[in-house]
């Protein structure tokens, strides 16, 4: 069949058509063609038309032009041409609806190939409807967006359903699959605005409704949602023999480099309130709930309304947007003059992003006061801005027209080979192919594009140029004007001694000062950061890290402002940020077993003992930092942090012990008999530490009658295990080039300081059965074997259980406990305003009460919560009394955990900064430090009375 001749099409008319006068969904594709592309490769065009059995007519011309100028459409016609012939005469709206219905009805087993087949057919149908003028731009982008939403929703629910059926999502059943168990997907960017381009990736933020889960289910639910999002992403983006569905980008979420792919709505809300930047505000103009729990997603967007839409006229947003534009140009090298060759349609001068920034920035300026401006679409935004007088009607009309034309050109660039590119071809030959696909004469098309770039640039650049009447001073002036002296002394700090460090720091300093100025008390935040900066031994690497990852600068400012003590630690150990960049910083918590395995593998890869000790310290510091940051940012609560700190310490001891034994045995021979075990006591035994905890340990061995070791330098058995224990303590607590691992306390061993540092099992058993004081049996309630010979450990655990199960003289236990309380009160009277550990009715007193109940009940429970349950039952407390003392324990632990993270110094309201106060009060349900102080005092007084009534008042036995 003859192909249509190459004709020169009036470019102005073509651009007018790009404005899209209306929708063509009520007519079929075959009967509504009003323009056709031109074939660049006529042989390929003939093959495509012939393969479909077409002769002449508009449909044949459309297919010829499409296949002859687009490799991608040619391939789609080859694969799905028969399907196209089946739907080409149907109403386009029916075809669109069928796409969405078939997406929704795909079975889990057919999901991957089914979505990919549908994507191919959507791309083919939308491409032909676009090229043939059957649909306006909004119809094309609308179908692409609707299909993306439907595909995302289907892939998400399949992933969540799998989690629910595997019982991995707490409390959720098949009835919850329809709302994805409370997981919502927000579409950002062009997908959120219903403007998805032809070969776009999709920008998603995945949030879950944490209110659907109890606090003790929170961690498990978060892990399940993270897995679901990863599976959803794989279903959409993995390329198979069937192709792919959508490239999926999750990096628009809060702090993308340091947060999991699914985060709670509460955490996201707190982030935007505290750290949200102008570009994030602008991004949420287009955001919409696209998949999963749509109602929860819409509710979340409503909560962000004050963040996106400021109540005042926000002219400062202009400078922020201008700076962003310049940074993009610098980053992409887009300062060259506009041309029809190699120009970036999206980011280049006069491109799509210029119009979007122009529109969104004006919306941000006034949208807080005028809800009518809060629309998602770019063309729609221009229309409303014109109606409200913020933009002239002529400007709005011209920019809308140019925006549509640029988007059409973008689609054709992407249609050629299904590439996510916005760059025009770099040769005249390839530009001719593009022009033909657009149905244009190459010279006329080149001239029209270049004129459009210049026109858009002129219309938008004046608005952003510095010195504009609407330009406002950046908020960092709030810091620099008041604290110039502090900023000036930074020049003399070690971190800024090199010219390179100074150069990098100058570039990041404005962002830093803006962040400090946003703090509740800017001067206080600046002073805290000053302490961090002063402690840095060097700056080039860390400043480069901040520059490449600005969210890390937000993180460090947050840390030093809230927890100066942790900030000082960071200044001395800045390499911990490497763990954040590593990508797993917010992945699932691996637990003690996973941590032990990971550290053991790392240590096994080193041959030098000192290198192993150093590596253990670096490794533990990174994980310790992670727990602290998670706690600081509300990702985990105090109880979870306590468990994770304990997991970390347990794994460090457990992984180090074999290497300590191996190194010691190389000199003195293998351990005589069965070897030894390490027993965690105190808080480590109870699996709850804080950020500053030391480790209570004892070592028990079983020599099985062997008198000496067999090695190059044999030792008597007792001396062998004593020195082995000392080697363990040194491995953990001695300062190396990388500092200490933990402080170790061994005073809970039999006979305390007077006894040997390692105890034989038979002697341990005899001592506990015949000589141990009540306090030693109370301590034993929290004992836990964490390392060493497995069989010996099981035997010791069995002995502990038998010993604790023995019937006690209640009166004698009460007398001993009363004496212990009196001694503690004399040694550490406590009672300071925020000292929640020492003193009557406070944490130490509650722990002693719980251990007493567990001992009298013969209960083997170790953790405080379980021991309190045993005590409440044994002492027959009322429901109100039981709940009150458990609430008191939670209150005191929350304060203790937060206080130790903030600083090792005593907590006072005079020395606690604003951010630290906010962190401290966040989970306590109180509004001020004064209210917290009163709550602590009142609670301690009540609990002290309850304990006095139950086990007797603190009295000395003489």
TrEMBL record:
Pfam families, per the entry: GlnD_UR_UTase, GlnE
Gene3D superfamilies documented for this protein: Beta Polymerase, domain 2, Nucleotidyltransferases domain 2
GO terms for cellular component: cytosol
Record domain Glutamate-ammonia ligase adenylyltransferase repeated: where: 66-302, 557-795
Keywords: ATP-binding, Ligase, Magnesium, Multifunctional enzyme, Nucleotide-binding, Nucleotidyltransferase, Transferase
EC number: 2.7.7.42
Signal sequence range: none
Domain PII-uridylyltransferase/Glutamine-synthetase adenylyltransferase: residue ranges: 323-463, 831-948
GO biological process annotation, one example: regulation of glutamine family amino acid metabolic process
Record keyword Amino-acid biosynthesis present: no
GO MF assignments: [glutamate-ammonia-ligase] adenylyltransferase activity; ATP binding; ligase activity
InterPro entries, alphabetized: GlnE (IPR023057), GlnE_rpt_dom (IPR005190), NT_sf (IPR043519), PII_UdlTrfase/GS_AdlTrfase (IPR013546)
Protein name: Glutamate-ammonia-ligase adenylyltransferase
Organism in which the protein naturally occurs: Boseongicola aestuarii
Protein's gene: glnE
